[in-house]
Amino acid sequence: MKRAVSSIRSRDVAHLATAPSPAAAEAWDGRFRLHKPRGQHLLTNPRVLDAIVRRAALRPGDAVLEVGPGTGNLTVRLLESPAARVSAVEIDPRMVDAVTARVDALGLAHKLTVIRADAVEAEFPEFDVCVANIPYGISSPLIAKLLFGPYRFRAATLLLQKEFARRLVAAPGDSEYNRLAANVRMVADARLLMDVSKRDFVPMPKVDSSLVEIRPRAAEPNVDLAEWLAFTRSCFGQKNKTLGAIFKQKRKVLELFRRSRCAEERCDGNANAGGGSRLIALGGGDDDGDMSDGDSNEGHDGAPSFSEEEVAVFKAKITGALESCELAGKRPSKLSNDELLRLLKLLNEQGVRFQ
């Protein structure tokens, strides 16, 4: 993605050319075995660690959230910054002991709270900035949790797998553009900051990483976020098909018909009072690209019976909405969020619901 890469400053990526010398790297004494399948790769290049903290632009009084502190290479720098306190979430008890002992020895324990928990499941304390070297396996669900959960924060500076980072910041029309990027764009601005070589980690992973900044927008979008996330799941499940092709499939039409009927019943029964809440399921925004077409009937047992005529009328409403906004022949990966929002609004006006 040329325009994104061109914005990366040369001094921030200069270290990619050569690996850090052993003397320049943070020490790792091998006190316990690191598990690659769990994403335990310690960032050891001090220049990169310093750059991450610098890019996070921490302010006096900031509360910082760190996910996956490991043995504390980044944690120590965060504690030495102007930030008032750091909350570090770590699931591995060995890492908890390591970072706690290290911080105690440096006399910084009064600024640190270590939360032993799964970051995807844990309830985070209030924070202003999130700074983290995220285990690759939880990148999507963690970003979904940050952006679509109840948290209010200024920015997140995250070290992610390079390919994932490119997909996260992709724009409509880019080959990498996907559902995750569309969902993130709905509530935040994301940009690449710098690349980080795989040689800067112990043990060395198979791929390079990239540092990304995510800044939530001050104003919430004028859309039911749960409905939007379900809508993009339908659109991007087969993102290389046109919207007309996606929404004319019989199974898709039946799925949406059932969902829409159920939504009507909830509305009639006042059972959907919290429909616009940001406290939505993490699965709504945690995919990192294409997914299989979700045309199952799960969750619709007991839905009222219906006739073929009713389904035909419903399908005509979908077709009419697509034609009225001239998007039937477009692929979702080529469309802006404004265009997709216009289609969603038209479909909702016709009684088509996605969740």
Automatic annotation (TrEMBL):
Pfam families: RrnaAD (PF00398). One of its GO terms (molecular function) is RNA binding. It comes from the Eukaryota. Keywords: Methyltransferase, RNA-binding, rRNA processing, S-adenosyl-L-methionine, Transferase. Residues 285-296 have a biased composition (Acidic residues). Residues 278-305 are annotated as: Disordered. One of its GO terms (cellular component) is mitochondrion. Its EC number is 2.1.1.-. S-adenosyl-L-methionine binds at residues 41, 43, 68, 90, 118, 133. Residues 48-218 form the Ribosomal RNA adenine methylase transferase N-terminal domain. The keyword Transferase applies. The keyword Ribosomal protein does not apply. Belongs to the class I-like SAM-binding methyltransferase superfamily. rRNA adenine N(6)-methyltransferase family. NCBIfam families: ksgA. This is rRNA adenine N(6)-methyltransferase.
